[in-house]
């Protein structure tokens, strides 16, 4: 793997803080990135995008503590999604945990891959927490592709509370990297991979998403 790497921090006092900072790659598309059309196989605008895996913490309907996030395909390379914050998602009393909100953004950004018909995983995800999100609130998320460069898919999202046009509570930018089915079969826990592969629907869907970089 040739992805960016971060060196462990230098021993304390040995370097200026700036010299120890890690140069992370940007999540904004580089020169030469393109905005491709929707894939011919992309679900029609308005389609409720099903879960990619029943046990997914982000979207799986069979994950009792998960986010059970639901997303709908937009007109272009965009999706909308809703996530209702439940008591099991608390960080501070009565407030959503920041990491859970990041999961909601990650999952929604991940659903953009349906529109490109490409299997991809998150390589980098940046988040701004703008305002606290209470338990019982619905986070209204919109995500869109900002560019594609080789196997890299750049995207952005914002989450609002109090309604789809309410104030922004969280913003995110991400870089996903397209992968082949082997990414999952090689690295996933064998018993879970076997169960998933034995499910004809899931297997068909996974195969349909295979990419040939
Ligand atoms: C089925 C969909 C599920 C969706 C669930 C919601 C989304 C998720 O949470 S996915 C789970 C979290 N993500 C992961 O577990 C990914 C873990 N990381 C990996 O497996 C690998 O590092 C992976 C696949 C990202 C990249 O590895 P690899 O395929 O070898 O790619 P590699 O050849 O190194 O890099 C390809 C390009 O991407 C860039 N890149 C790779 N990783 C990163 C990164 N982390 N940040 C920025 N750029 C990166 C490289 O610089 C390279 O760019 P260029 O083409 O310009 O040279």
UniProtKB/TrEMBL annotation:
Biased composition annotated in UniProt, kind: Pro residues: 1-11
Residue span(s) of domain Thioesterase: 94-159
Keyword Cytoplasm attached: yes
Topology relative to the membrane: Peripheral membrane protein
Catalyzed reaction equations: tetradecanoyl-CoA + H2O = tetradecanoate + CoA + H(+); (5Z,8Z,11Z,14Z)-eicosatetraenoyl-CoA + H2O = (5Z,8Z,11Z,14Z)-eicosatetraenoate + CoA + H(+); decanoyl-CoA + H2O = decanoate + CoA + H(+); hexadecanoyl-CoA + H2O = hexadecanoate + CoA + H(+)
GO BP terms: fatty acid metabolic process
Keyword Cytoplasm: yes
Pfam families with a match to the protein in the record: 4HBT
Keyword line: Apoptosis, Cell membrane, Cell projection, Cytoplasm, Fatty acid metabolism, Hydrolase, Lipid metabolism, Membrane, Transit peptide
Gene Ontology CC terms: cytoplasm; membrane
Residue segments, region Disordered: 1-46
Similarity-based family: Belongs to the THEM4/THEM5 thioesterase family.
Name of the protein in question: Acyl-coenzyme A thioesterase THEM4
Protein species of origin: Kitasatospora atroaurantiaca
């Amino acid at each position: 793997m040739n992805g960016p790497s971060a060196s462990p921090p230098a021993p304390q006092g040995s370097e200026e803080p700036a010299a120890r900072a890690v140069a992370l790659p940007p999540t904004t598309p580089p020169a030469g990135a393109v905005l491709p059309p929707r894939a011919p196989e992309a679900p029609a605008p308005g389609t409720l995008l099903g879960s990619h895996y029943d046990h997914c913490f982000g979207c799986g309907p069979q994950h009792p503590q998960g986010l059970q996030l639901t997303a709908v395909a937009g007109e272009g390379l965009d999706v909308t999604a809703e996530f209702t914050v439940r008591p099991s998602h608390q960080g501070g009393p009565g407030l959503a945990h920041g990491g859970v909100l990041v999961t909601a953004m990650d999952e929604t950004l991940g659903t953009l891959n349906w529109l490109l018909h490409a299997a991809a995983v998150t390589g980098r995800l940046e988040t701004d927490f703008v305002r606290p999100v209470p338990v019982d609130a619905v986070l209204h998320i919109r995500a869109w592709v900002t560019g594609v460069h080789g196997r890299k898919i750049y995207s952005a999202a914002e989450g609002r509370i109090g309604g789809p046009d309410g104030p922004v509570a969280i913003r995110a930018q991400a870089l996903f990297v397209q992968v082949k089915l082997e990414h999952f079969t090689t690295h996933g826990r064998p018993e879970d991979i076997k169960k998933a592969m034995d499910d004809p629907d899931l297997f068909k869907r996974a195969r349909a998403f295979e990419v040939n970089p």
